[in-house]
Structures are given as structure tokens and as C-alpha cells.
Amino acid sequence: MMSRERPIRVDCLQYANWSEKVFRQMREGGVDGVHVTIAYHENFRETVQNIEQWNRWFERYPNLIFLGRTGDDLTLARETNRTAIFFGFQNPSPIEDDIGLIEVLHTLGARFMQLSYNNQSLLATGCYEAQDPGITRMGRQVIKEMNRVGLVVDMSHSAERSTLEAIEISERPIAITHANPSFWHPALRNKSNDLLRALGQSGGMLGFSVYPHHLNDGSDCTLESFCQMIAKTAELMGLERIGIGTDLCQDQPDSVVEWMRVGRWTKEIDYGEGSKNSPGFPEMPVWFQDNRDFNTIESGLLAVGFSSNEVARIMGENWRTFFDQSFGPADRQINMLDRTAAE
């Protein structure tokens, strides 16, 4: 691990209402890399328009943010006091029904794609469906192509069987970028012990979410409870397989929740895991309001018994290793492994 005053910090999922304020808070919080959602239900052309918007932000705020493509960009971010932005999709809608768009989107900067959001997709089953038939025929081919180009399979919103099958089918480790264990809080999107064991044994990664619907006691969840949960999950999966994926939706209007949950698939409001009387965003816990609060999580992890080196792994070093192994073409990964073995 490189010598530094604080550990590298990576947040493996945010969907904020992006602004100069948010970008400056990333710098105040020392966040070196953020996986940002650039598509929920958008088709290919609409996703390209979102990439165009990000290109304008990169041009306007070059001293704050830049497009991240490899794990090395986390080092560049640290050295230049900026935040590397990594693109991801929470639904496979950007590839439509065209497997060739996977490589196109990877070339444009995409590094993560969920195989399903909350519903059944062409590829896999979402966690809100009553039945989970697993990875589809197209899903198997898409996983193979994602493995080839270096687009990470993300199963954060997927159902149990689909996720276990994705772990088995994928020749490269997958990620659950933003979720928590169901032993701590039984939300539909939180993950079972069996699934987390399989994820850890396969070399995959889990990013812990701070989104209140996924927390024990919701918005009233304590920092101690959150960090104790991380400690128990480390015992279950292995310390090297866990990180942070806050699912921070800062400054978003409640109307955005409708797009996230409803998209174009229904005319009715889908309340998801929220209150039937309040489809909007819940209040964040007092100890994590925005990107300036990563220090608080670090302090909480130290308080429950993690060493400083272990905290460094959880806060970003584990994601850095995963990025190094995952974002390039499969043949590049093989070459890296060969070089490591030779050394």
C-alpha cells in the first residue's frame, strides 16, 4: 500500500444531482474515485446524451473531476487532487437487445453494468419479482462479452438465483456495488449469507450501502451498528472482498425516485421499499450526509476494532485491486497474472 496520510477512498455507487458543489465536496472528503450511475432506464442514444453531459462537466471542472478508465486513475486522482469518475448502468437498457453495444459503451467509458434493476430484464431477474428463473440465454452471452471487454457484472438489484448463477457463469469476479447483508436488515435488495459467501469465494466485491431503506433502523441507524455489520460481513466474506458503495442520492428531488422505480414500464407509482405514503427519498443518517463524511466511517471502523491497514482496505484499497483486475480486456488480465507469477 502506498504511503499516505489517509487511506485511498473509493465510493462504488452514487447518483447525485451533480453540481460543482457536489464535486467540491468530493474533494473536501478526499474521495479519489466514484462509480456514478449514468443510466437507469435510458436506451443507447439517451445514455450517450448522458455521457455528453458528463463530458461537459469534465471540460468545465477539470481541476475537480476526470473520467476514470483504469485502477491507475485512482493514483492519478490522488496525485492531482481530483476525483476519478467511473461510469456505470443500473439496468442493461443501454445495450437494448444488441450485444455489440457492450464494447461500444466500454469504449465510451462504461465500467459497470447491472444485469437487472428491480424487475426481470432480458438478462436476469430483479429482486422484486416473485419468481427468479435465473440468467437468461441472452444473459449468458452478455456476461461472456462483458468478461471479454472488461465491463463488470453488477448484481446489486438482482434476485438470489440470478446472482448465484452470474457468479458461476462469469469467468471474472462480479460485484455487488451497493447493498448490505440480509442478516442485518431483511430488505429485498440485501443479500443472504450463502450468496455473500459465494461472492467472496469467487473473488467478487461487496460495497456497503448507506441508503436508509437498506439500513437496520433506517434513517436512525447508528454508525456503530453499521460498522459492526461490516465487521461481521468481513468474517463471512473475507476482509479483502468488501468496500463502500454508499448509494448516495444527494440533492435529488423526490420526483427522481419515480424515474428510478417506474421508468417506462408502468403507469402506476412503484413505492419499492419506501413508505406507501412517501415515495420520495428518506432522510440520510446523521453521520453520513454527503461526501465530506467519509472520515466518520473511517473513525467508526477503527472504533469497532479494525486496524488502520484494514480500514484502508475497506475504504478503497480493495476496490483499487478489483479495478486493476476488472476494467481491461480479458487477455490483458491474463498477461497481468502471468507477469505476477513470473515475479
Give a description of the structure.
With 343 residues, the protein is α/β, with parallel strands linked by helices. It has a single domain, classed as TIM Barrel (Alpha-Beta Barrel), CATH 3.20.20.140. Strands 1, 2, 3, 4, 5 and 6 form a six-stranded parallel sheet that branches. Strands 7-8-9 form a three-stranded parallel sheet. The relative contact order is 0.15.
What order do the SSEs take from the amino end to the carboxyl end, as H and E? EHEHEHEHEHEHEHEHEHHHH
Low-confidence stretches: none
Q: CATH architecture, please? A: Alpha-Beta Barrel
Give me the number of helical elements.
12
Molecular shape:
globular
Question: In percent, how helical is the residue content?
Answer: 40-55%
Radius of gyration: 18 Å
Q: In the CATH hierarchy, what is the class? A: Alpha Beta
Largest sheet: 6 strands, parallel
Strand content: 5-15%
Fill in the CATH topology.
TIM Barrel
CATH superfamily: Metal-dependent hydrolases
Structural class: alpha/beta
Q: What is the number of domains?
A: 1
Number of strands: 9
From the N-terminal CA to the C-terminal CA, the straight-line distance is 18 Å
Average pLDDT rating:
93
